[in-house]
Amino acid sequence: MEEKKLIKSGEILISHPPHIWKGFSTPKIMYIVLAVLLLPAGAAVYFFGLHALWVMISSTATAVFIEYAIRKLRKKRFVMDGSAAITGLLLALTLPPRIPIWMVILGSAFSIAIAKEAFGGLGYNIFNPALAGRAFLAICFPVQMTQWYIPKEFATDAMTSATPLSEAYVYVGTRTALYKDLFFGNIAGSIGETSALIIITGGLILIFLRLIDWRIPVIYIGTVAAGALVFGQDAVFQIFAGGLMLGAFFMATDYVTSPVTPLGRSVFAFGAGVITLLVRSFGAMPEGVCFAILIMNAFTPLIDKYVRPKPFGYLRKIAKGRVKN
Amino acid sequence: MSIVIRKKGFTAGIKLNENKKSAASPIQLLKTPERVIIPLQQHTGAECEPLVKRGDSVFEGQLIGDSNKLISARIHASIGGVVSGILKIVNPVNSAIISAVEITSQKAGKEGEQPYSGLQKQDGKPYNAGIIPENVVDLIDKIPREKLLETIKNSGIVGLGGATFPAHVKLNPPAGIKIDTLIINGCECEPYITSDHRLMLEYGFEMLCGIYIISRILEPQNILIAIEDNKEDAIINIENLIGALGFENTFKIVSLPSRYPMGAEKTLIYNLLKRKVSTGALPLDVGVVVNNVGTAKAIFDAVIKNRPLIERIITVTGDIERPVNLFVRIGTLLGDILESIKVPDNKTLKLIFGGPMTGFSVSNMDFPVTKGVNCILIKEVKKPLENNCIRCSRCVAVCPMNLMPLVYASYVKNNKYEDCREYYIDSCIECGSCAYVCPASIPLMGYIKTGKSVLARKS
Ligand code: SF4
Ligand code: SF4
Predict the structure, then answer these.
(1) Ligand 2 neighbour B399 (Cβ under 6 A)
(2) Residue of A4, A260, A314, A324 to mutate, testing the B interface (most B Cβ within 10 Å of its Cβ)
(3) B182: β partners
(4) What is the pLDDT of residues A102-147, one digit of tens each?
(5) B254 in any annotated domain
(6) What pTM was computed for the model?
(7) What is the ipTM metric for this complex?
(8) Is any Cβ of chain A less than 8 angstroms from the Cβ of B16?
(9) What is the phi/psi pair of residue A11, to 5°?
(10) CA dist., res. B382 & res. B384, Å (int)
(11) Residue ending a domain, choose from B305, B324, B351
């Protein structure tokens, strides 16, 4: 009775501390990443024309729709947190420029339905869903997934070309001109991976905003560069060609599928670098980034188990027999 | 050498929105309540046995609870009156049931009444109501160490920063352990709370003399008063008083950056001395004793004014019109405190005892203020929704104890309590930083507390 007098409150809540929250929520993180991804997305349209736009739109829309449908079917809460949209857009950025739209939709559906929701949804998936979707398409449709075009000739009379990393690739021009094309993106490849400049810019924004850990891209790319030097390869070419930049900044840094400790992440990035090099040098495929990251994804639970930080003031033998306060 | 040492380089921890709304509000007296409920365990250690029974009349400051256990602290009546019941109440922190003495006074207190104006007698000696002798340092020098410790024990003093460890135990380290540094904790790193800040501004003299008493007992080489740099006025005030008292050769103030959890014992010792206190160990294992500024004042009151610990300063703040700092009697009920302020209507509220990071929320208006409560926070809240962990590792990055808080949530959810130990759950100091930053708003602290208490029950 007295309570009524004192507090005319809707309700009094009881909960564990803390009672304040930073409020930087999952959707906020995801939407900032999505906004930064518009950089490579814009570059994709610039280099590869309108079809690239349709690829990205269909992939993103499919991802969000499939996630919504599955959540509803499983009678779970659907959160419009932007994670599905990121997966869809990232997948699109790894696809070749002339891929048929139905294939995009299939790949995107695989990413969300199989690689993400079948594992339990956001946070529970082992593999990066976008890369899993790409790997699925690469295995099912090897021909369509390896048809590349040079951007500058693309608009007029589309000429197929090999990607820089494949053995059939020949570049007509000086080495400096090649580096320049690799850096600015005027080179055959997936719609979102060609321009190192744009990807590094986006990646630096994410690092600056502390949304991704700098260790992963730096160690990943550093390992590839160092390894290339050791093997006597062209290090500049190795780091700028293919999907390494996109993979290192946007795929390997995926929270869910990478380790949580700084040391664990370093191990993860180093491993991805080594595998990338090995696949590129000795594997049957010209590019190894996608599989390198997927393989390291599989090792993530193990890394998190064994690379465990020691607690503050850790002692092997903890002082016993004293009063605890 | 100057009295104030300024430290800058602390990078770990989190920057919180301070919200110290009541910092400029002088400490006021809450009118003496007509009814108090005094729990018999307000400290770390053994619960006291009641020394009174229903119907007994008690005077202000009378000993009403004691224990023969080594680690325990005496309990005194905070108002005069009649014992109207010995109750059982639930401690919301660990859901243990403890006894409490309910005292009802015959005459209602008047507003603005001076503390202890009644000059009640205890052992025939009158309380010294608020008069400080001029030669207080000489006076302290004359009292033997054993007598000081005994007075502290008799007065029921515990750590007032929140840990509530009995002071006479802390100040009497086992033989063979040498304390070289005494740290006085005036960090007050939690948002909203200003009770220690006001104490340093208004009771700096008492506090410094209290520290002097502690230093007589422990005889440390260094005495460091740690204050966060968001309380510059307190730093200046204490600096001046140290000069006035002639303590400048022994007392040093260390100004620290305001990062949470700076005031937590382990992080504080590390930041001041670069010494690490391991899990399960005590500060005295690294030669340090940490006391809160409020404890120092309470010790002064006990030794010089012969007052037991029956009142303390709390901040009443949050989403209310006029946040204040109050002198309240131990055992004052939440309802009586809320009566004096305007609580927002028709809102979903949390009533929190303690700060926003570590305090516990209650809904019972008959819940009493105990020795360890430094703040009552009234907060409007939205119901939180727990989302999936995205393994973003923000909790790992902020944890001052270098833990991986995310794993506790999944282990506790799946009842794999033993696995929490593998990830050093016992090292957690329950600072709340992890849950504060979690983008998925996972109540990590709740899982940690559940995990710890299940493990404690098992072993
Ligand atoms: S901060 Fe929250 S979401 Fe991020 S890893 Fe920790 S528990 Fe998971
Ligand atoms: S795990 Fe414990 S010590 Fe670490 S941030 Fe969370 S509450 Fe603080």
Answers:
(1) yes
(2) A260
(3) B223, B289
(4) 999 999 999 999 999 999 999 999 999 999 999 999 999 988 888 8
(5) yes
(6) 0.89
(7) 0.89
(8) yes
(9) -170, 150
(10) 6
(11) B305
